[in-house]
Amino acid sequence: MFKFLFDRDTWQEVYDSFSKNKLRSILTMVGVWWGILLLIGLLGSAKGLENSFNRLFGDFATNSVFVWGQNTSKPFKGFQEGRRVRLSLSDAKKVEENIEGIEFVVPRNQNQSLVVRNFISGTFTVNGDYPLLDKVQKKNLSHGRFINQNDIDDNKKVVVVSNEVYKQLFEKYKEPIGEYIQINNINFKVIGMFENGNVNMGPTSDMHIPFTTFQHIYNKGDRIGWMMITGKPEYDIKQIEEDSKLLLKNLNKIHPEDKRAFGSFNLGDQFSKMTGFLTGMQFLTWFVGIATLFAGVFAIGNILLITVKERTKEIGVRRALGATPFEIKRQIVVEAVFLTMVAGLFGIITGGWILIGLDAAFGQGEDATIVNASVSIAVVFIALIILVVLGTLIGLIPAFKATSIKPIEALREE
Amino acid sequence: MLKINQLHKSYAIGDSSLHVLKGIDLSVDKGEMVAIMGSSGSGKSTLLNIIGMLDEADSGDYILDELPIKDLTEKKAAVYRNRFLGFIFQSFNLINYKTAVENVALPLYYQGMKRKERHELAMFHLGKVGLADWAKHLPKELSGGQKQRVAIARALAANPKLLLADEPTGALDTKTSHEIMEFIQSLNDEGKTILMVTHEEDIANMCKRIVRLRDGVIMEDKRVEQIRAEQYV
């Protein structure tokens, strides 16, 4: 069989029968080509979308949950229902110390404030933050730096602004770093500027000032607006959310079954929904691609069947000259596999071009919708193996058909 | 060389069956040139097909060169056809997308001969039929007589024991027919055993022996004075 595959005559035969039926062979191959093109194109795009999601969320600790206080809905230990729940820094500290699987707990504060620079003013969301925020929600800084521990310790009046704020308060091309803006009638020095990405998780952030400074200027004392809890990757964020809430209820004398005392937003939960969607899309892609591939291969089988019918007489002559049924079958199967392989390889190459095209059109820049659209070599090999197997199977049908006719009947055919 | 004993063959046609060969006894010696004649439906083609192992007899013996031909698998039949028999058809049956030399080399390909040897041998046989210059031409570029000569070269390529011709001149005009017959006669002169089916009296008379079939039995089996074809050419 090996010798047969490397025999020049084998390929001469394949070439002959191909060149004899050029148009038909090409039309046939279009089916397989299209199938593998779809498979590669779709899988690559799906991968590109996944990559872009990963990039968007990559800077963000996706295994996290936001928890904030609301009003109690059940009386407990002498307290009436409807009591306002306020979280404090000590709560955050206790959560961090006692709950299993926690990576960081980031207490945060937020307020709407009038911000003034020279004669321009606007109302923005001002956040009081620790440097830790930059770890769980990576700020895409274009200028300067984020808040550091020194700022916290010294209650420094410094601010990191978003590019949106900059656009509204500053003249074009004005260097923001070192400039002063007024928040609550207090001058703050701008130390950094960040860009908001496409996807914003949690509350919007226009500007960040040191947590301790926030405490002072808004008179917050120990109270915090909400806390952001991130879990270690191997821990289930749902469980961490449950545990943290229970602990917080205990600390704040709230009924353990009070469902409204704390509000929360589980990012990990949302994220897994998104990745579930991506997985579904990939499954669909495989399904569509392979189904199309099947259709294409069947088209090849169909055409070969017609070809065999047309070549009945030729096959009869060959058998009269001493071709064994096996030799006839082998030849037809080789033709089938060859056609599927060539069509498949073309499909892979053109599919690659499409991915290159997609990358050029949508894959450039920071907020590209499709990032590094690509298909792994393993996938390409799997596709090729599927092609070869299907090509062989489908070639067997016309092959058996060809040899089931007696040579005498084949010769009689006009 | 060839021995046939009480050969029977019938074809099923719908519910009834048609008894085509009703006990044929025939023996052909080496170097003979036999014409099988008969009207259509007399069973002459069926007989040739059975001798050519393209078809199988229902009963009876068939011995080719001391080798009993029976219970053939398709594979075995293919090998025997390739080694022992050369076919010449009425409609030439050349493969139309292969050149003359490739057509001639085809039986050698199925023998598993190497490409180069095959080509040399095929060229030799093409030369014998006088078409060496036409080796690279496709069948459609050849005249009827040339096509038949290519077919003869192909039949000879594997050096068969027996040459079977089914109306070899049926599709040719008289002049070309005589040229082909002249060539076939010269092959016979060299010692090839030839069996041919024809319904043309003058072609049959160019053989050395005529076997007449009617309704599946041999009516007449006689030796004739061979008329040489070259006198017409």
Q: Can you characterise this structure?
A:
The complex is a heterodimer of chains A (414) and B (233). Chain A is of the alpha+beta class. Chain A has two domains: 2-58 and 273-412, no CATH class; 64-267, no CATH class. Chain A is built from 14 helices and twelve strands. Chain A has helices at 2-5, 8-20, 22-58, 89-98, 133-136, 149-153, 163-169, 211-217, 237-251, 267-310, 312-320, 325-362, 377-404, 407-412; strands at residues 64-69, 87-88, 102-117, 120-129, 140-144, 158-162, 180-183, 186-195, 207-210, 223-224, 226-231, 262-266. In chain A, α3 (22-58) packs antiparallel against α10 (267-310) and α4 packs across α9. Chain A is elongated, with a radius of gyration of 34 Å. Chain B is α/β, with parallel strands linked by helices. Chain B has a single domain, classed as P-loop containing nucleotide triphosphate hydrolases (Rossmann fold), CATH 3.40.50.300. Chain B has seven helices and ten strands. In chain B, the strands form two sheets. Chain B has a six-stranded mixed sheet, with helices on both faces. Chain B has a four-stranded antiparallel sheet with strand order 2-1-4-5, covered by helices on one side. The radius of gyration of chain B is 18 Å and the shape is globular. At the A-B interface, α2, α11, α12 and α14 of A face α2 and α3 of B.
What is the strand and helix layout of this fold?
The complex is a heterodimer of chains A (414) and B (233).
Chain A lengths: L1 H4 L2 H13 L1 H37 L5 E6 L17 E2 H10 L3 E16 L2 E10 L3 H4 L3 E5 L4 H5 L4 E5 H7 L10 E4 L2 E10 L11 E4 H7 L5 E2 L1 E6 L5 H15 L10 E5 H44 L1 H9 L4 H38 L14 H28 L2 H6 L2
Parallel strand pairs in A: 4-9, 6-8
Antiparallel strand pairs in A: 1-11, 1-12, 2-10, 3-4, 3-7, 3-11, 5-8, 6-9, 7-8
Helix pairs in contact in A: 2-12, 3-10, 3-12, 4-9, 10-11, 10-12, 10-13, 12-13
Chain B lengths: L1 E12 L2 E13 L4 E5 L6 H8 L7 E6 L2 E2 L5 H11 E4 L11 H12 L3 H14 L15 H14 L4 E5 L7 H16 L3 E5 L3 H4 L4 E6 L2 E7 L10
Parallel strand pairs in B: 3-8, 3-9, 6-7, 7-8
Antiparallel strand pairs in B: 1-2, 1-4, 4-5, 9-10
